[in-house]
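Worked problem 6 (solution included).
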Amino acid sequence: MSETGTATLGMIGRLFREFAVALSVAIVISLVISLTTTPMMCAVFFKPEKAQRHGFFYRASERGFNWMLSGYEASLSCALRHYRVMLTLTLATVALNVYLFVIVPKGFFPQQDTGRLIGSIQAAQDTSYQAMRQKLREVVGIIMSDPAVETVTGFSGGGAGGTTTNTGRMFVGLKPLHERKLSADQVISRLRGKLANVPGAPTYLQATQDVQIGGRRSNAVTAIGGCQQRPTRPRPAVHGGVRPQHGIAVKYLAPAY
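Solution. The predicted structure is:
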């Protein structure tokens, strides 16, 4: 019960919530049946061996079971006679499992390489449409110059809340994997250093996934306000708790009087 309850936490839990509930209910029902109904059914249907005559199906299934049991005994005897070979196979199986554990992608949904990237540019709020178009052309030129990139489509403006002139979006098509020799994440890492040299145009790239879960880039702003007698620097506790992170800008605003 505790394991299934733990599995229902977070984004992954939203996908397996129904499965966890069904599994928990099935375990409880199985527990009740095994402690009540099963013993009573055994007392009713099971008869002493001497007082009961078996039918054709029972005798056929019993012969099949005895045949499987004799086969298992023969295979077990063979394994015990060749214990060195069996020990070698066991160690080889353990080594193979360790190797597969290292090379297999980790995570709930392993990172895919679909050959497509999506990108976004978030410039300052006061960036004009003409300046944004120039920054977009510069970013598209840098991406297109990469040998692993085949096509780039970019556009600026537009958004869910209306027209935003300080944003840009891109759709990048990569060459086939046997030509570029690099994964999509490696291509993004190579482009990240070049795109960082474009002033005033932070660019974010990510590989397109068939199943997209997790965080998204956001323009959310967190404001911390309060009343003070005179402007002071932020307290050390607040300053220490709010640190600039990748893609997050932290600004301290003095109160207006």
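Discussion: The radius of gyration is 32 Å.
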